[in-house]
Amino acid sequence: MEKNQIIELLRKDVVPALGCTEPVCVALCSAAVSRELDGDILTVDVKCNAGIYKNGMSAGIPNCREVGLVWAAAIGAVLKNPEKSLELLEDLDADKMMAAETLVNSSRVSVGLDESKNGLYVECAVKTSDGEGRCIISGSHTNIILIEKNGVAVYIKENENAQSGSDAVVEELKEMKLAEIRALVDSCSEEELAFLMDGVEMNNRLAAYSESNSVGVGLAETLRGEGAAGLLGSSLLQKIIVQVTSAAESRLDGCPLPTMSSSGAGTKGLVVILPISETAAALSASREQTVKALALGHLVNRYINAHIGKLSPMCSCVMASSTAASAGIAYLLGGSDEQIGYAVRNMCGTVTGMICDGGKVGCALKVSAGSVAALVSAVTAVGGAALRVSDGICAQSAEESIRNMARIGIRGMEKTDMEILDIMTTK
Predict the structure, then answer these.
(1) CA 52 to CA 357: how far, in whole Å?
(2) Which of 38, 61, 179, 189 has the most crowded Cβ, counting Cβ within 10 A?
(3) How many domains, the chain?
């Protein structure tokens, strides 16, 4: 792989997102089909795979006091702005919200689970007084493959099963060793990676939102309080806990500020960026060291996500993104290739198995715990303290450890995911 390929991948992978990605995906799907139709909206019907259904069930929506996919579908249908992609919710105003409320309150919006779909899948059918249409998103949150109007396709993605350029790069990345990824990052100049600092600024602004606004259930507010400060002090670990918890709680409660995403998700972006950037600041790392550590974190995040797949039964924001952050922190601490591998092994023996029970403000505590593990795993790894290869699912190499994590998530927890869904839908 060439240096320019990973830079291009980073530019496509590290982009702003507004709101939890699963509701946004549903809103995008309904917006895309609704834009093709005239007349008054009569019904909006959505079917989606288990991952979208689970992750969007309790997630907040920016500029909206409600949560969940029914509201996301209604809002997208009235916005009709799919050209805004992952930032389409920034156009939601009082008039559009009122129109969405009318649809939901009159029971004209439905969201159902399509158990036959294993990968990311959203299908939205909209009927209006003037006609009907359908849109399908598949594979990734913005990958629209079909739009129909009155039974006639107005858009079909050509070669939908063929790999795009970025998909091919991800497949190549998936076969690399972490040491090779690190070498490519080291070959980049500070100027070539400087755009990654935009994510630090954006996600720090998101983390600061709860300082002047009431969000979620008060996790960030409590952690900033005198009681918590007396227990946690003012260490690097405390700063990481507060920043990550605050940003995640704000985002998943529907904060109107965007986050810089990574590997297709905003929460993954803040989990990679904030622990690395806080560590860089504590170490007084140079700008070059900081952007290279961020680049390594984003690429390792993409690498792990490529192995475990999108919307795993396990919390990929912790399993993938916190592990990636640990690799980036180990890099900042001067870790060798072997020691960065130790950080991954330590995370493998620590966070594997944390379940994903949907996107909601409670995820803030999960990613906070993952970020604590990331810092501890990196510090111990660079100190030469690596978990034994004989420990559980840990392996000799970072790559094999990641494959074992993925095996647990893909094969080992398949039935677990259905139990989680059953609990969530029947409680």
Answers:
(1) 11
(2) 61
(3) 2
Which tens digits make up the pLDDT trace of 322-342? 999 999 999 999 999 999 999
| Residue 190 exposed, middle or buried by CB count within 10 Å (0-12, 13-18, 19+) | middle
23: nearest Cα among 63, 76, 65: 76
Averaged pLDDT score across all residues of the chain: 92
Task: Say what the pTM is.
Answer: 0.88
Q: Which residue has the tokens 């919710």?
A: 89
Last residue of a domain, one of 156, 177, 201: 156
Strand extents, DSSP E, 129-186: 131-138, 144-149, 152-156
- Domain shared by 200 and 78, yes or no: no
- Residue 69, domain CATH: 3.30.1330
> How far are the Cα atoms of 290, 337, 339 from residue 179, in angstroms, in the given order?
18, 6, 10
Q: Are 32 and 224 in contact (CB under 8 A)?
A: no
Cα separation, 172 vs 72, whole angstroms: 35
Sign of CA pseudo-dihedral 302, 308, 311, 313: negative
Under 8 Å between Cβ of 82 and 31: yes
Task: With respect to residue 3, please indicate whether it lies within any of the assigned structural domains.
Answer: no
Question: Do 242 and 99 belong together in one domain?
Answer: no
Cβ count within 10 A of residue 39: 10
Check: CB of residue 92 under 8 Å from CB of residue 118. Answer: no
pLDDT at 140 over 60: yes
Question: Which pair of tokens denotes residue 250?
Answer: 């704000």
Question: Residue 48 belongs to what domain range?
Answer: 16-156
Which amino acid is located at 128 in the chain? T
314 forms beta bridges with 355
Contact 55, 358 (CB under 8 A): yes
